[in-house]
Amino acid sequence: MSKYKVGAYIRLSKDDSYNESDSIDNQKSIIKDYIKDNSDFELVDYYVDNGYTGTNFDRPAFVKLCFDIVKKKINCVIVKDMSRFGRDTGWVKVYLGEEFPKHSVRFISINDKLDSLKDSNYTDTLEFALLNLTHEHYAVDISEKVSAVKHLQQKKGDFIGVSAPYGYLKDPNDCHKFIVDDYATSIIKRIFNMTLECKSKNEIADILNKEGILTPSRYKSEVTKVTSNKTIKSKKWNNTIINEILKNETYIGTLIQGKNRKPMRKIKKLVKTSREEWKVCENHHEPIIDKETFQTVQNILNFSDIVQEENELLITKIRCGECHSEFYRRKAKGIYYYWCKSSYRKIGCNLKSIRKDILEKLLLVDFNDKYKKDYKKLNKNLVNKYIKQIEIFDKNRVKVVYKSDK
C-alpha cells in the first residue's frame, strides 16, 4: 500500500499567540509524533500561516496547500485540531465536505479524533457542526474583546498602528508614542515651505522626483524597514501624495485614529467614518509644522488655482468680520470683488463684497502706518511675512491682524 503524502497545516493568529499549546513548535511536534506513529504517512511539507486569523481562508500557506492538492503533491492534510484549520463554519464545511473529497484528500484532526477515512460523512454530523460553531463563537468573542481594547487605547491617545506616519518613528521606550525622524521631517518641511511659495502640488512632486527623494512608502520599506505587506509602494511622488502630507494633522502634533472601520466582521473592505467618530488626541507628539503655518497652507489648498496667479495676494488671508466665513473671488465688468461665502450663498450674513483693488490700497495704508514704511505696492512676500489675517466688515471697514501682534 502506497503511503499518504501529508501536508501538515499549522496556523497561529496574533490573538492567540500567547497560548503555548497552540504555538508553531507545539503544533509541529504533535503532527510529527502522529506521523511517526503511523507507518502509512509520508510528510511532504509543513504549511505554516503565522499571524493569520482563522475567520477566513485568505492565507498564503493555505493557498499553497490547496495548490499542491490540485497538483497532486499531497493527498492528506493533518492539523492539530479544527480551530487551527479554520473558524468560519461555512467555509470549513465547503473545504472539508466538498473540495477535499473532490480531490480524494484525506483529512485528519488529531485532537478532535476526526479522520475522513474512517467516516466520510463526518462533516454532516451534529458533533462536527457543534465543534465548528464553538470555534467560530470563540473567534467572534476574541475579536470583540480585542476591538474593545483597541478602542480604549485609541480613546486614551495610544497609537495602535503598525508603523508611525511618515516623518516619525515609534518611540523605542513607548510603542504608542512617536519620535521625530529628522530626515523625513526635513522633506515634510520643504513641502510645506514650497506650498507657501505658491508652488503647485505637481511642481513640488516634480522637484522631489528630480532630486531622487524616496516617496514615503519607499522610505519606510527601504530605510526604516517598518512597513506592511499590504502597503502600496509608490515609486514616484505625485499630486495625491503631496496633498495627503499637506492635509495631515499628524504634523501639528495631533493623533487621529478610527478614520475607517469594518461594517461587518466578515467584510474586509473598510468604510470611512465621520469626523465625529474619529479618536482625536491633540498634543500627542512633537509637531513638525506649527499650527499657523498649517492653517495657512490649508487656506492655500482651498484656493489653489487662484493663489498661483501673480496678482493674487490676499485670498488666503481674508475672513468675514461678521460670520468668519472665507471669501470667494468674483469678476464683474473687469473688476475683481471678494464676496463673503455665507453672504454670497444667502445663508445669513449681511456683508456683501469689497473690491480687490480698494482692499489692497487700504492694506497698504495700514501696513505703512504700522511699520513706518513707504511702500507703493504690496507684494506676496510682505503679505505672507507680516499679515496673519484680514477681517472684512461692512462699508469697507478692515481690521488687519499682524503676525507681530500679541
Report the principal-axis shape.
Answer: elongated
CATH topology of the largest domain: Rossmann fold
User: What is the β-strand count?
Assistant: 17
Order of strands side by side in the largest beta sheet?
2-1-3-4-5
Residue fraction in strands? 15-25%
> Can you tell me the CATH class of the largest domain?
Alpha Beta
Task: Give average pLDDT, whole number.
Answer: 85
Describe the 3D structure.
The chain is an alpha/beta fold and 406 residues long. The chain has 3 domains: 4-140, Rossmann fold, CATH 3.40.50; 157-293, Hect, E3 ligase catalytic domain fold; 303-402, no CATH class. Helices cover 39% and strands 19% of the residues. It is built from 14 helices and 17 strands. The strands form 6 sheets. A 5-stranded mixed sheet has the order 2-1-3-4-5, sandwiched between helices. A 3-stranded mixed sheet has the order 12-16-17. It has a 3-stranded antiparallel sheet with strand order 13-14-15. β6 and β7 form a beta hairpin. α7 (201-210) crosses α9 (239-246). It is elongated, with a radius of gyration of 31 Å. The model has no long low-confidence stretch (mean pLDDT 85).
Pick out its properties.
Hect, E3 ligase catalytic domain fold, 3 domains, 14 helices, 5-stranded mixed β-sheet, 17 strands, single chain, alpha/beta
